[in-house]
Design a protein that fits this description.
single chain; binds uridine-5'-diphosphate; binds magnesium ion; 7 helices
């Protein structure tokens, strides 16, 4: 049975800065994820703190919010068959050193914090994260 989903993808500052946006987008397109909506923005630290609030108790939270607000990011809605899991597989493990071959994080990630991309991890979070960036 078909299961078309939408998920939120972010190209993080380390990747935007290294001009990897088009190369990362082409990975999604080649793997049957359509880019439905797409904008380049620079968020404030407060906005990053709101976006990442599920992580507020973690030791890396403050650095993570500083980092996501440190430069332009590209936020996108990806749509396709099992888009949430499909995007997570294309991204690879959080730590680029542990990410599978040919994943975005393995190829482009610099470190566990500067790991080039974000992707929603569940249907619920995908809905919330899409609404956070694309209110209509
Ligand atoms: N992160 C970090 N240090 C850690 C774990 C995570 O800096 O030890 C950052 C990293 O940028 C990661 C983000 O926090 O992408 C969110 O963490 P999560 O566990 O949700 O990983 P993801 O879903 O991005 O793979
Ligand atoms: Mg996560």
């Amino acid at each position: 049975m078909s299961n078309i989903e939408q998920t939120l993808s972010i190209i993080k500052p380390d990747a935007v800065e290294r001009n990897l946006t088009d190369e990362i987008k082409s990975v999604f397109i080649k793997n049957d994820l359509k880019i439905k909506n797409n904008k380049k923005i620079h968020i404030t630290k407060d906005e990053a703190a709101e976006f990442y609030k599920v992580h507020q108790s973690k030791p890396f939270y403050d650095d993570l919010c500083t980092y996501l607000s440190s430069g332009p990011i590209v936020v996108m809605i990806l749509e396709g068959e099992n888009a949430i899991l499909s995007n997570r597989k294309l991204m690879g493990a959080t730590d680029p050193k542990k990410a599978e071959e040919n994943t975005i994080r393995k190829k482009f990630g610099l470190s566990i914090d500067k790991n080039s991309v974000h992707g929603s991890d569940s249907k619920d979070n995908a809905k919330k994260e899409i609404a956070f960036f694309f209110k209509d």
